């Protein structure tokens, strides 16, 4: 009898410490040790996941050109698009998998990921596996597209991490159910309708690891700053993001007694926070007030962020590390995830999220920071009042996964 495996898939690798944080925190919530299918398995073994999961690197066609040609020809002849997914997941796909969890995040917001998301979901469902889309943020306009609706409706369960996505998913499900009302009950039974929940991102419960602070990092008197190439790619005025960050650092150095820690949260070669961070550090290192933090695990980076007085962040999970540590935070955002999380925490995203697309003047970020600094204590108090219940709600993700795992296992025993 085959061993039953709980699988996590569509994980991009721990070089993105937000991806690492979602898997890490989810693994700490659930009873079953999962198989983690990762496109960059070596990254996961380097950071915090090596003891938490059975890490299996996906097969890459880039490393097997002949296999790529063979599968391409096979797909052309048969139309079997899912064959690429079966190849990538290798022996795991041949195992007994009652439940498979798609590591949601904002995967659906990227054009280049949606086809793989659809094919993987479809392949698992065809195999008889229940699929869960976990901790997701999806732009509401995307949820209106027929091909995305058709994909989302195949999941057994969808867990949104903020209310904007949740409300859009609820509308989607209601519309689909309305379309089924005219069918006979036996015909309706052939159509899947996913269960939809809204629980905060699992990473709100991420544990922190406090390493010794580097020279110049004054606990409780340091502003943490994170910048990413991703927000630079979404700016509407070329170079405006870096101009704003330079102006902000200059303002802090000249008008406050605060130290500044530049903190990376994604370190992929193709999308590395350390590049713009190092550029800023080189410009301001002579002040003696700015330091550049090294890479670390998601838990170690949270340990640094938690000891900041305030935080300005572009990466979602860097800001989640700050929020969950009661650090007043300004998000330099570009998508639904930043707006939705801020709205759920504070009732509004206004002043808490500065969309990079709205940067016009190089003082825009500085003005937003001045508002944050003026409201610092009130925001910290608000986070302190909100966070215990918010973290408890985040734990519901683990309870739902455990429930589904037990339900799947029981059904297979019957």
From TrEMBL:
Molecular function GO terms recorded: transferase activity
KW ATP-binding (keyword) present: no
InterPro entries reported for this sequence: Polysacch_pyruvyl_Trfase
UniProt keyword annotations, A-Z: Transferase
Span of domain Polysaccharide pyruvyl transferase: 184-335
UniProt superkingdom: Bacteria
Coiled-coil region(s): none
PANTHER family listed in its UniProt record: COLANIC ACID BIOSYNTHESIS PROTEIN WCAK
Protein name per UniProt: Polysaccharide pyruvyl transferase family protein
Organism: Suilimivivens aceti
């Amino acid at each position: 009898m085959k061993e039953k495996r709980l699988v996590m898939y569509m994980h991009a690798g721990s070089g993105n410490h937000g991806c690492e944080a979602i898997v890490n925190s989810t693994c700490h919530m659930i009873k079953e040790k999962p198989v983690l299918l990762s496109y960059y398995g070596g990254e996961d073994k380097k950071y915090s996941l090596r003891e938490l999961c059975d890490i299996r690197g996906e097969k890459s066609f880039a490393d097997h050109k002949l296999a790529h040609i063979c599968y391409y020809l096979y797909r052309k002849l048969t139309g079997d698009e899912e064959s690429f997914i079966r190849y990538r997941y290798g022996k795991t796909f041949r195992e007994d998998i009652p439940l498979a969890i798609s590591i949601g995040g904002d995967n659906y917001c990227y054009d280049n990921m949606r086809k793989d998301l659809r094919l993987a979901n479809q392949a698992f469902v065809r195999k008889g596996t229940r699929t869960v889309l976990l901790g997701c943020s999806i732009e509401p306009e995307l949820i209106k597209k027929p091909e995305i609706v058709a994909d989302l409706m195949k999941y057994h369960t969808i867990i949104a991490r903020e209310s904007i996505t949740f409300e859009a998913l609820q509308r989607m499900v209601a519309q689909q159910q309305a379309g089924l009302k005219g069918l006979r009950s036996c015909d309706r039974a052939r159509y899947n309708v996913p269960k939809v929940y809204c629980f905060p991102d699992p990473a709100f419960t991420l544990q922190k690891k406090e390493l010794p602070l580097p020279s110049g990092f004054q606990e409780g008197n340091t502003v943490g700053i994170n910048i990413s190439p991703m927000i630079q790619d979404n700016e509407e005025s070329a170079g405006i993001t870096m101009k704003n960050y330079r102006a902000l650092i200059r303002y802090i150095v000249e008008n406050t007694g605060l130290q500044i820690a530049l903190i990376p949260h994604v370190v992929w070669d193709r999308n590395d926070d350390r590049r713009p961070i190092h550029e800023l550090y080189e410009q301001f290192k002579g002040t003696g007030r700015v330091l550049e933090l090294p890479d670390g695990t998601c838990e170690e980076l949270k340990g640094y962020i938690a000891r900041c007085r305030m935080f300005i962040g572009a990466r979602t999970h860097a800001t989640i590390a700050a929020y969950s540590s009661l650090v007043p935070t300004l998000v330099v955002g570009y998508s639904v995830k930043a707006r939705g999380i801020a709205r759920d925490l504070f009732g509004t995203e206004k002043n808490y999220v500065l969309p990079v697309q709205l940067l016009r003047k190089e003082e825009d970020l500085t003005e937003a920071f001045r508002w944050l600094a003026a409201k610092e204590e009130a925001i910290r108090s608000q986070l302190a009042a909100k966070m215990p219940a918010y973290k408890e709600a985040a734990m519901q993700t683990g309870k739902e996964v455990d429930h589904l795992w037990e339900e799947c296992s029981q059904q297979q025993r019957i």
